[in-house]
Amino acid sequence: MDTLILLLVTGLGLGALYFLVASGLSLIYGLMGVLNFAHGAFLTIAAFLGWEVGRRISDGTWTGLVISAVVGILVGATVAVLTEVLIIRRLYERHIEQALVTVGISLAAVALFEGIWGTDPIYTDRPAWLTQTTEILGARIPNDRFLLIACAALVLGGIVLFLRRTRYGLIIRAGVENRNMVTALGIDVRRSFTLVFAIGGAAAGLGGVLASVYYGYVSAHLGSILLIFAFIVTVIGGLGSLTGAAIASVLVAVLQQFANFFLGGTGDLVVVVLLAAVLLIRPRGLMGKAA
User: I need a surface site. Which of 30, 44, 55, 209 has the fewest CB within 10 A?
Assistant: First the structure.
């Protein structure tokens, strides 16, 4: 019983991390139809700069972690906005060029990060509480999982409130449903594009800092690794569906943890099989809408 609880909560923590990355991908695709392969670069640079600032101010403390998170959010949002304004904005409706350019940015970013911070992982210090465990029904749960789950829940709640309670949120939701209709009403949906990129970049930036907490290190390939699973989550949940991304994040991560433990470390293979099954049975994803 304690093993099942440990795997479940650990899966929820990993799923929270996947969601922080996938939420931005889902929002960006839902409104703009852009599959942003550079999203992982937003996460990585946010993780590195957040770590650099946090360790210089108060390394291994809650103050340092909070500062790292704030820096990561700001860096992720800023880099995402610059990417949209300088590059993506020129390529709307040109999907092949979008994919090629964002893949190129991703590859170039990894090379840049390796040139600055090296190719080896850099291990990070965390507040003492995050290195400890809490017992739940006999299972010793690493405390950092609770932090990840709480942050993902706050991000999900914040995005939902923004989409439902603000003017720009209503425009974004309407644009996702029918962009042509909204444009015909005289509303320039593209004004919201930059804001959506900023939100997605901010979520990825927070995810980058929390990834360094979960894994205990930062590296040039951190974003690339998480981006793979974020895309899987986005496709399984349904492209453009935030709710689907949340459900799929938990499903994928929990399944991955159980398969790794009970099926000899085959978690990644099982996730790929799940992806293939969803694409064959329900190509639009769990919560995606029919074309």
Answer: 55
Annotate 113-176 with three-state secondary structure.
HHHHHCCCCEECCCCHHHHCEEEECCEEEEHHHHHHHHHHHHHHHHHHHHHHHCHHHHHHHHHH
User: What confidence tens digit (pLDDT) does each residue in 18-67 have?
Assistant: 999 998 888 888 777 778 889 999 999 999 999 999 999 988 889 999 99
CA dihedral of 173, 177, 178, 183, whole degrees rounded to 10: 0
Q: What is the pLDDT of residues 148-165, one digit of tens each?
A: 999 999 999 998 898 888
Contact (CB, 8 A) for 97 and 76: no
C-alpha–C-alpha distance, residues 85 and 79, integer Å: 10
Q: Tell the residue number behind the tokens 């300088």, with chain if given.
A: 86
* 10 vs 27: CA distance, rounded Å: 26
239 close to 285: Cβ distance less than 8 angstroms = yes
The residues pairing with 122 across neighbouring beta strands, listed in sequence order, are: 218
